[in-house]
């Protein structure tokens, strides 16, 4: 009589290989550089990120409603004030390339605050799209852990 385990063992091995493949592929595809933040730093960092998304939401909403005060308030939130608020321990872990994308992004929000006073809405929308190119560039290169 042929032992059942002779069929089961190769089957199990095949299953393990099949299920581990997507994991390996994901690790290879994710080439982003890790910032190596602690859980507390990560929570703080991601909270700032969510505020940046909130700024973008407020800016687009303001453009759609033709409410310049709303644009200004939303953009100011992610300007230099946010850059200054980054904890020193996090700042120490950010390399020059990260800073070369992050710094100008906060500055662009400051510029948007000024532009929102006078620029046509289409220009404000284009400028917001330009800001979001920085979001995209950095997200493609870095991860928190
Ligand atoms: C200089 C780098 C950099 C810039 C610029 C940047 N981000 Fe991020 N952001 C990150 C990193 C790193 C993460 C973490 C990604 C990960 O670990 O998967 C992140 C995560 C996020 C998250 C997820 C938050 C969470 O709770 O998980 C949001 C939302 C976000 N960013 C929004 C934005 C928006 C909107 C902009 C542009 C206005 C922006 N970010 C610009 C680096 C950046």
Report on the structure:
The chain is mostly helical and 145 residues long. It has one domain (35-143): Four Helix Bundle (Hemerythrin (Met), subunit A), CATH 1.20.120. 80% of the residues lie in helices and 3% in strands. Strands 1-2 form a two-stranded parallel ribbon.
Could you estimate the helical fraction of the residues in percent?
over 70%
| Portion in beta strands | under 5%
| Overall tally of structural domains | 1
| Small molecules held by this entry | heme C
* CATH fold label: Four Helix Bundle (Hemerythrin (Met), subunit A)
Core attributes:
145 residues; mainly alpha; Four Helix Bundle (Hemerythrin (Met), subunit A); two-stranded parallel sheet; 7 helices; binds heme C
Please summarize what this structure is.
With 145 residues, this protein is an all-alpha fold.
Q: Helix and strand layout, with pairings?
A:
Elements: H1 5-29, E1 33-34, H2 39-65, H3 68-77, H4 80-85, H5 88-91, H6 96-118, H7 121-141, E2 142-143
Parallel strand pairs: 1-2
Helix pairs in contact: 2-3, 2-7, 3-6, 6-7
Bound molecules: heme C (HEC).
Heme C (HEC) binds next to helix 2, helix 6, helix 7 and strand 2.
């Amino acid at each position: 009589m042929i032992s059942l385990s002779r069929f089961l063992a190769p089957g199990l091995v095949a299953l393990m290989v099949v299920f581990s493949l997507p994991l390996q592929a994901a690790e290879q595809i994710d080439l982003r550089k890790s910032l190596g933040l602690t859980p507390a730093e990560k929570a703080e960092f991601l909270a700032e990120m969510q505020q940046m998304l909130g700024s973008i939401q407020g800016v687009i909403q303001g453009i759609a409603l033709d409410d310049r005060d709303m644009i200004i308030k939303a953009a100011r939130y992610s300007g230099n004030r946010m850059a200054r608020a980054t904890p020193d321990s996090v700042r120490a872990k950010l390399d020059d390339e990260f800073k070369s994308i992050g710094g100008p992004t906060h500055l662009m929000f400051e510029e948007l605050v000024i532009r929102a006073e006078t620029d046509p809405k289409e220009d404000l929308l284009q400028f917001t799209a330009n800001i979001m190119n920085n979001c995209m560039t950095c997200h493609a290169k870095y991860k928190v852990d």
